[in-house]
Amino acid sequence: MCPNRPDEHPAPGAYVTRFAPSPTGPLHLGHAYSALIGYRRAQARGGTFLLRIEDLDQARSRPEWEELLMWDLSWLGIDWPRPAWRQSERLDAYGAALDQLWARGLLYPCRCSRADIRAAADAPQEGAPRFGPDGLIYPGTCRPAAPQVPPGPRPTDCALRLDMVRATAGMDPLWFDESGASPDGQSGRIEVTPQDLIEGVGDVVLARRDMQAAYHLAVVVDDAAQGVSEVVRGADLFDATAIHVLLQRLLGLPHPAYHHHGLIRDEAGKRLAKRDDARALATYRDAGLSPADIRRMVGLD
Ligand code: GLU
Fold first, then answer.
1. Gene Ontology terms, cellular component aspect (predicted)?
2. 96 with 202, same domain?
3. Which of 225, 245, 275 is at the close of a domain?
């Protein structure tokens, strides 16, 4: 396969970005920072800022969190075209992408629990357990020695993993353009080699058992379907971008540019999480702070 061609990137001028929170808790200062950066980048370019609700984790997503996050964003002065897309309503699109990969023998069913994976990764013959963007790198317990040819129907009662060795076979390095920075300061044209993906990422889950889609697949399908030209998000997702660029290539989708920004941390230097309710935007609002106060707090005055 040939490397990405420059003409696969969207034309300058058609700037579209998105903010893609999961409605699993209140938005905090880190979300405000991310959404404001994306919104400002879209405004500065006469572009479009989209809100996308990433609610594939149905066990933790709640309509009341969705309602609150929309309220928080509006309060900050952020606007987006209605209705916002919800990933739970896009399962047909994700199914079609999974079908393509399944038909090419690049996916395999996996019935391992987290405990199974931990136990297999800890086995002495595996060496030290290795970690990638999704945590422990899958030790390959369910990976078939050879793909079933022709493949039968795609199973829908278990997780599906991407066979990374097969998916990258014969592939030249991929790349993406980074206008922000990785946590260790990488910027500009970032190269992703098959070796990086095989050793540093491994066989990622593309369909959850309960949902028949998973974050990496859904984000790539939606960014393409929504014409996103630049993904703006926190540097904690920088390493996942290698997976996204690979999936774009495998599915014949365009490659957006990327802008990973630094993370807002607490006094101890720890990244803020949704469970840190003390830093929820709603808490600050209830205490009488204004959107301008929030902008000042995240250094975006
Ligand atoms: N849903 C992810 C989050 O809340 C963001 C995913 C993305 O921007 O690609 O962290």
1. cytosol
2. yes
3. 225
What is the CATH classification number for the domain harbouring 292?
3.40.50.620
* Protein residue whose Cα sits closest to atom 5 of ligand 1: 20
Q: Are residues 132 and 191 in the same domain?
A: yes
Residue 6 maps to a domain: no
* pLDDT tens sequence for the chain (301 residues): 333 444 444 455 589 999 999 999 999 999 999 999 999 999 999 999 999 999 999 999 999 999 999 999 999 999 999 999 999 999 999 999 999 999 999 999 999 999 999 999 888 787 888 999 999 999 999 999 988 887 899 999 999 999 999 999 999 999 999 999 999 999 999 999 999 999 999 999 999 999 999 999 999 999 999 999 999 999 999 999 999 999 999 999 999 999 999 998 776 767 666 666 668 999 999 999 999 999 999 999 8
Domain assignment of residue 184, given as a range: 91-225
Question: Do 106 and 199 fall within a single domain?
Answer: yes
Whether the predicted model's global pTM rises above the 0.85 cut: yes
**Domain match, 155 and 124 both:** yes
C-alpha dihedral over 146, 150, 151, 153, to 10 degrees?
Answer: -160
The two three-digit tokens of residue 129, written as one number: 């357990």
Cα–Cα distance between 201 and 167 in angstroms, integer? 12
- Integer Cα distance of 42 and 259 in angstroms: 12
Instruction: Give the total number of structural domains in the chain.
Output: 2
Q: What residue's CA is closest to ligand 1, atom 7?
A: 20
